[in-house]
Design goal:
9-stranded mixed β-sheet, two-stranded antiparallel sheet, 2 domains, alpha/beta, TIM Barrel, about 450 residues, about 10% strand
Length: about 450
């Protein structure tokens, strides 16, 4: 779908939604993110996560999605009221902009059920079309902006060393007790159990299904999904997985690649998207994402694209933070090289560059304004190497995302001394615990490091 079509679909969706109420959003019915290790959910990624009632799952596993909280929010929307958790969209709309409420509702997977939803808006067994699921927090990485909720390696570290000495303390072990404690993979999980009871009913309705983690290559449920898809092909399904692309052993990688190859070559789905998380280049990327071998990651991406030549793509997810800025161009050059090698008949290598918002000390807005010049130079370099007719070139919307990130940076730049103190406190402790060295990894950031240290 091109950009003009995307916008026109959103405008058409706005008209249809307004015919029901000025706050109606189809994503509240047709989209869900499930965090099964903690039993939490939300609709799209804007509202805060809320608890799934485990007792409701006994008779209705679709209550993983159709929670009481969501049903109450649906009622609010039908009345023209604004659910508080959807404030991201309300702020945009109050500023006269189209919001994700319109864009999400305008996508085919959401709009196809418009009549069904409006005719039966209070159904407690509604089957969503767009599902993201995190089955487990098992992971071999300790990324700097992650937590024990999404990484067992992080959990082991804070159990050993306790919280990080920031203000307030970061990733304190006591925060992940009780209801916030991720259920270990070895223990019975009522939410995972309910998912598999729901799955045969859910699967025929799906248009997009995405597995995240943790690290999905290390999760038995990933292969269970793959085998189900192999046995039950679905020609209109977009199957997606987010991975660090550096599994702890080669056998695991080969098992994963072989199953994806079978899915793609035998046309079991419409398309397979491999999302790959990496935020900088080389040594700097390895520092941000502790456990990463950057060259191995790139070799594995090249191997994936070579071994599975059809019906798939890779999208690099660059979570743009203040440690990404100085080596972003080198990372983009590696992405371009993969594009040149593998994108012959269609674009097989993409990237997205969302801004990191938490923890606050790792936001780009904390960096001195001089770093914005690096960002501008990178944007200009992308513009000079852009073009719609050449798969290796950057696309207009990719350049625009860089411009949007700069606009956010300029508007929200803050010389926040508390967060600069936190920056030094966190990464100084990071170096002590993990045997790393910030200045060896980022010698070009020495002046900023010393400024934070002095505070």
């Amino acid at each position: 779908m091109n950009k003009s079509q995307y916008k026109s679909d959103a405008e058409e969706a706005k008209k249809k939604l307004d015919g029901v109420s000025p706050t109606m959003c189809l994503a509240k019915w047709n989209q869900v993110s499930l965090h099964l290790p903690t039993g939490l959910t939300n609709s799209c990624y804007h509202p805060p996560l809320h608890e799934i009632d485990a007792s409701a799952l006994q008779d209705n596993p679709a209550a993983l999605h159709n929670t009481e909280e969501k049903i109450q929010q649906r009622i609010q929307m039908l009345k023209g009221e604004r659910p508080e958790g959807c404030s991201y969209c309300w702020k945009l709309e109050d500023a006269g902009e189209m919001s994700d409420r319109h864009y999400r509702s305008g996508e085919p997977w959401a709009m196809q059920d418009f009549n069904t939803i409006t005719n039966n808006p209070f159904g407690r067994k509604h089957q969503p079309r767009y599902v993201e699921v995190n089955f487990s927090n098992v992971c071999n990485f300790k990324c700097s902006y992650c937590s024990p909720q999404f990484s067992t390696m992080w959990g082991k570290e804070v159990d050993l060393y306790a919280e990080y000495p920031t203000e307030p303390p970061h990733n304190a072990p006591e925060h992940f007790q009780g209801r916030r404690r991720p259920i270990p993979q070895r223990e019975e999980n009522p939410y995972v159990k309910a998912f598999w009871r729901w799955w045969p009913e859910l699967y025929p309705h799906l248009k997009h299904f995405r597995m995240t983690g943790g690290e999905p290559m290390m999760d038995v449920n990933t292969y269970k999904v793959f085998q189900f898809v192999i046995n039950n092909p679905k020609q209109d399904l977009h199957l997606n997985v987010t991975s660090n692309m550096c599994p702890p052993d080669e056998k695991l990688k080969n098992k994963y690649f072989d199953m994806v190859k079978k899915i793609c070559l035998e046309e079991k789905v419409e398309h397979f998207m491999q999302f790959v998380s990496v935020d900088a280049h080389g040594t700097q990327a390895e520092y941000i994402r502790n456990g990463l071998n950057y060259r191995k990651l790139m070799d594995n991406c090249d191997d994936f694209l070579s071994r599975i030549p059809v019906r798939n793509s890779i999208t690099f997810i660059i979570t743009y933070n203040n440690l990404s800025v100085t080596t972003l161009r080198q990372l983009l050059e590696d992405i371009r090289r993969l594009r040149e090698k593998h994108s012959k008949t269609y674009q097989r290598v993409w990237f997205d560059i969302p801004l990191l918002r938490q923890p606050a000390w790792q936001q780009i807005t904390l960096l001195p304004e001089s770093y914005q010049a690096i960002h501008r130079d990178n944007t200009e370099w992308m513009r000079e190497n852009s073009g719609e007719d050449n798969y290796s070139q950057f696309k207009d919307f990719e350049v625009q995302k860089m411009q949007r990130n700069l606009a956010y940076w300029q508007k929200n730049y803050a010389d926040d001394k508390t967060q600069k103190k936190n920056f030094y406190a966190f990464f100084n402790e990071h170096d002590r615990r993990r045997g790393t060295s910030f200045l060896k990894s980022f010698p070009e950031m020495e002046e900023f490091w010393m400024e934070c240290k002095a505070l």
